[in-house]
């Protein structure tokens, strides 16, 4: 039995079948989640379509409901956070911040003003451009930040007047089920439906005839399948996909000064962030200092069960990901890389891995070229900045990147040459509700957040009134 139910048409719905949810801190099954059937998915889609008829009409009511929903999340953060920690692994404090973050996003959109644009008003015509909702949105999220990434979709989509069927990752279903349960009395029935299940449920959603829009966050490989599934029905898609973010240190960057920022942005959520720093390019003449400054921080990091106080980094979320990080680090070391810190799994139960800094490694090594998505950071030396930029840009990824240096103007000039959605200067992972976030190249299509994220859940309509 699952103690959380799916939310369909405002009701709690159990499934005939359930699937196992593993606590990554123990490696053991700790709970069950409902495995949505095709028939139940149809019901969720139908209830979203039915709710759309009224929900789209009253913008003031939508704003009020989003504001109330934010308050519910703020009030229930202490209840939902342990559910997230138990299935995701992140420290309880981070899980609590994530629930708050979801509330912050709901509140931001509740208050976002998006005025209609008048593009002509003269003797001939009054021409306005307005934004209309699309209908039912199918939303699919990954396991690293299930709640906050869910809120990036829920908040703008609902504000625009759409309704939604949302599916979290099978590794982290329960926190999103809990979120929907918490909001059941706040949002009208059918406006937000949450179903849980495996990858096949995602495929059923993207090929389902009801949704007009798919909003997907996950890996590049799955993103391509989603785009292909959307094509026959010309469903609109937003794809937020993987990244392999470079951080380039300029020759005037002081390793002692930038190391805290670099380390935090590489290891936040145990490196399981789409736009975490995934490779550092350091000038050859300061290379050893950079490696050592990062390695010292990795050695000092407190890793453990997220429910234990004082723990900074939890386990890797799931066994396949744990094996992938282990394999990429072992491959780098076999190829001549040096583990300046860490370098191997931590003995004992759970998917724990030592915070790892890899030195004497370069492009061409899998850990530099691929997205590791875990607590292992390669540091690559360079002598020529143009060459470092070419290497930083020389991948299919283009999510974000950063440039670090004492001369911020010069660093900004270099940052502008990165081919990616966000280029940070002397920081990384500075993400906020008002700032559009998305990737170029294989890192995605479209953006989330700010008015631009809202536009992604709308279609343009021109209202042209003749004055003749
Ligand atoms: P994933 O692609 O394996 O799964 C993501 C979601 O897609 C899950 O809910 C999964 O069940 C579902 N899914 C799987 N197969 C599907 C299919 N055929 N059709 C529809 N849905 C399907 O990704 P993951 O391992 O959960 O997440 C990690 C990845 O997500 C990393 O690559 C990371 O960089 C990326 N990510 C990107 C962003 C961003 O905003 N750009 C944010 C977070 C994570």
UniProtKB/TrEMBL annotation:
PROSITE patterns membership: ALDEHYDE_DEHYDR_CYS (PS00070), ALDEHYDE_DEHYDR_GLU (PS00687)
One Gene Ontology MF term: oxidoreductase activity, acting on the aldehyde or oxo group of donors, NAD or NADP as acceptor
Keywords: Oxidoreductase
InterPro entries: Ald_DH/histidinol_DH, Ald_DH_C, Ald_DH_CS_CYS, Ald_DH_CS_GLU, Ald_DH_N, Aldehyde_DH_dom, LUC3-like
Active-site residues (renumbered): 240
Keyword Lipid biosynthesis: no
Keyword Oxidoreductase tagged: yes
Domain Aldehyde dehydrogenase: 15-462
Similarity section: Belongs to the aldehyde dehydrogenase family.
PANTHER family tied to this protein: ALDEHYDE DEHYDROGENASE-RELATED
Protein name: Aldehyde dehydrogenase
Organism this protein belongs to: Actinomadura craniellae
